[in-house]
Fold these 2 entries.
Entry 1:
Amino acid sequence: MRVFFVFAITAGLLIYSTGLTAPLHLDDPNVLRIAETVGWGTRTLGYASFWLNRQILLFIGSVLPWREAFYYRLGNVFIHALAATALFWLVREITQRWLTAAVAGALFLVHPIQTQAVTYISQRFESQAAMFMFLSAAAFARFRRTNTKLWIPAVVVFAIGAALTKETAVVLPLWLLFIEFEFFEGIHLRKLVLYMAVLGLLLVVPALRAFQGSGQITLGWIAWHQYLLTQGPILTKYFELATWPRRQFLFYDFQPVGSITGTVVLEWLLVIGVAAFGLFLLRRQRLIGFGIISFFILLLPVMLLPLPDLIVEHRLYGAFAGVAIAAAGCVQVINRKWVLAAVAILVVALGVKTARRNSEWQDQLTFLEMHHAAFPRDPQILTRLASYYFMSGYVNKSLELNLEARRYEDRFNTYYSQQGHVLTAINLSSAYLAKGDFQNAEIEARRAIAAKPKEGYAWRALGYVQMQERKFPEAVESFKKYSELLPNGEAWEALELAATRAGDAATAKLAAEKLNAESEKASAVAASPGIPERYKSFAIFGLTLGVLGALAWAVYTVWAAIAGLANHKGTRTQGSSQVM
């Protein structure tokens, strides 16, 4: 397993190096901001890993030249390598074949469908949860194979770790039962089901807490039967992405199925056919069948819970383990040298494709323009692309795209409709304000407030328009709402300026006090522990020694494995000669 881990780290760094220095995308800044606070909710371990990542960044970032995003993505790559190694361990435990396990782990590691869960920093929740699930399953398989009860705590700890990273880990007990029935005796069925039920209750608690406050809104945006009907086309698309993805996107313009058509029926027949084929193979080619059914089991939470984003690639991260296992099972059945050569070529080809996919994240405008070209009527893509153009100084282009998004606002699904209208209006207000069109800027800001009165950024947009129109008392009221809804340094600074110009000394004084408090807090964060200047040379020396030590360990691990394999072959040859 150590040899595979060395391979996973090396290959992972190589194929993901093309995207390590890409800027933060979409939700990344917000997730990292939450990780710096104490309000981590039910995804405690997920946010904790980001917090730990930041402490490392603060410590060594002062002696290394890379930007902030690099360190977070580097952490994602290590988690991905650990997840692939955990899958290798699981397959080796259930098959006792290291070559089969290596094929499964390598395919999982290099496939381009995994890029979104690795390169998109905020999707670490997906890869880290999958890593813990694979570790729990591998520990369970080791326990059942060796009957060593010391592995039971590891099963439970890893399972809880998965649940505290992402709520979809609730499916783990079902997967463990499936592993038991397929690869072990299945004795003491009632006792095992009882244990798994208890484990399931432990894992379901974070999921219930996560949806307690927002479940009705999040899960009620669409009729459940319509969402389930849409899973046929979605799974068909997932089949395509899990084999050889030709075109990958962060967003897909995928609308819910409104009626049963011939295409929908054919897609469902394909899904049912694949699942039936997997069940059929369970009694003939067990590993292949296990992989196919595992794909569906690991996707069950997102198939059954009507989540607002109908299709996103990162949801395939854990489920792709089933595809990798099934492919490894095919290699095991054929058992020919030419198949291993073909797998090696495939791994290299997939690695190259993954590296190319990662390079697409380097430029935000180019990245979303690619999406715009593929889905020209998607208002979510248009709105986000317009925001990037505005931040890059292309005001006219931003205005054009926002007006285009306005034409397609009816394509937002029910869940995103309100927020989509608000963002489009705020973007238009900012663009009109930048062009000096104060009348339209105010109309759009008020439209955003009408759509969502408790949206702080809508009041912010209105406040800035009123400042330009020299309506200072009105601006004071707008910035008051902004600071109440989203208290931050910018809000207090804007409120202080507006109150000063309006002659409201009391409000200006209060805003100044709040601004000073925010500044002190920011200064405290900036003064977080780092490496003092006089010790930086020692730190660089220590990091160099650490890297060299890791390289030496990797070389020794690989060399020892090769030597052990050669000795094993020599012993077998000698034994054969004695028999002759």
Entry 2:
Amino acid sequence: MHAPALALKWPASVRWRHVAACSVAFCLLVGGRAAAHQSVLLPDPPAQSQPVAEVVTKDATPTFATRVNLVPVSVVVRDDKGRAVGTLTKEDFRLTDNGKPQIITRFSIERSSAPVVVEKETPDLEAPVTPARPAPVLASRFVVYLFDDVHLNFGDLVYVRDAAARHVATSLQPADRVAIYTTSGRDSLDFTDDRAMLQGAIARLRPNPLVGGAGPKCPDISLYMADLIINRNDQQAAAVALAQYAACSGNPHVTANEVQMMAQQALSEGEQETQMATRVLKEVVRRLSAMPGQRSIILTSPGFFPLQYEHSDITDIISKAINAKVIVNSLDARGVWTPPGYSATLPTPVGGSQVISMTNLYLKNEATLQAEVLGEVADGTGGKWIHDNNDLNGAFQRLAAQPEFIYVLSYSPDNLKSDGKYHNLKVILRDPKGLALQARKGYYAPRHETDPLQLARQDLEDAVFTREVVKDIPVELHTQFFKSSDDTARLSVLARLDLKGLQFKKAEGRNLDKLVVVSALFDTSGNFVAGTQKDVELNLKDATLADYAKPSNPGLTIRTGFDVKPGSYVVRLVVRDGESHLMASENSVVEIP
């Protein structure tokens, strides 16, 4: 039996009103599905002349202070046989930021074999006792195959498409869910365990460049060359492009202004394609952050070239992936490749071999930088980067296997300035003992001060869209349901807090604190179904607080509810204490027959 929820006593004159129980942060479109809005009854605030209520529950935007801004660093340590090592401690690591030693303030070890933590459901108290049924198989491993169809050419895409299809057909396990996404946004498929649907989505993959058309360009100015010409005012690159233009057009009278215009167009088009790939990768990390259990991405791409002023987007993706426990693996779809060069079908430009040699150098530099991005996101998140390898079947097999142990080292930089500058990170072991270390290489400082309110909202939402159990403050999660018909039910979620674990602020004879309580509902495939958020203001008298401290008192109970259809659900509860900034979170599985 559950203790009843705390009864709120309101004056008879108080009017009741309907308010939306789902905050903006949890009514987002997640995976193409809009969060359902629930409706609850809440009282209007009492007039100032009325006594101050000791417990006030209402829907509101959280305004609590955010936690210290930490820089997370993901580290994988392997022995001489390539096996991940999980026996190291915080004292075994040394970390520097721009050469300055840093104090590791948070240290954790993530284990890929750790199961999704759930509590048993609370049965329907009014339903007859029935024989126990087998527990539903909960999805606990989520893999996104992200194909960069914006940059992939048809020849490379055919090979990786076939290898991915074979891997999906032979490796899918009952608790696995796989999604097929593309950087163009076309031919995508959300998480499923249906092999036929996955095979169909992979078979439909085609190159989808955002710009350009059939046939060679004249002149063929790459994004790398365009960046040199427009952003860096490289006169040599401009002269090479001018010589190319004169040769391919057959017009010796072309002008530098024409080349500048073409370089500007090439810069705009290439930047657009890079931004598309970066934006989709960021969205996929965000999508995966809402999934329980193991989460990984297999990014298949020939690479892409972020401009210098956009490279902070890459390091931002790495930070978000680390915080969300998402591993990004990358496969260079070119396999074993030779550096591109000046096309032999084009006329020899004015300047001859020197211009051709410089053109080849620019193409090689760009191809190398494109590949380095794939390595950066993999190294930074604890993933693998496979390149210069034509064994695509084996590559997908290796990329799908997560390292057994990943260390996450977090620190707070001293006097971090919002100047947008790059910070070099270096992680070493005090005693390497023949171990190999893979870690994040760096990050960009923010370009402007971050809004504390936005950080606080993100902090809370990140906690909801994980499955980590946190017990910084004592809270119990209980659920119960009541079926009103064969196809409808009311699911109640009760958060029971032990107030002895809270920190109160004393003011005017009262004990003050603010709590944020979020209940979220997910289906067994990890898809977000609905969410509610409540703010609880505590203005407790000493006698009331003492009463809550009695062993016989079950604590403060906050109740939320959802109208649902029969099925299996995962309930996620997150409670944030406004005074201590501590958090508690729990999970529960509910099966409604």
